[in-house]
């Protein structure tokens, strides 16, 4: 279990989650990237919109 950085809700992180995995917050819908697994740490995922890199 970890915490959404956007809304503070608990977000379930399964035991075999790997760094770089993207999870959705079930409360606010923000995409969260697993940046560490011990302990599970989430950050807001980079915006992969079409203008990425432009
Ligand atoms: Zn959230």
UniProtKB/TrEMBL annotation:
The gene is lysW. CDD domains: LysW. It comes from Halobacterium litoreum. InterPro entries: LysW (IPR005906). Gene3D superfamilies: 2.20.28.160. This is Lysine biosynthesis protein LysW. It holds the Pfam family Zn_ribbon_LysW.
């Amino acid at each position: 279990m970890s915490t959404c950085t956007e809304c503070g809700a608990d977000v379930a992180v399964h035991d075999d989650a790997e760094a770089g995995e993207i999870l959705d917050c079930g409360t606010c819908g923000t995409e969260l990237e697993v940046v560490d697994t011990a302990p599970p740490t989430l950050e807001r995922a980079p915006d992969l919109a079409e203008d990425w890199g432009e």
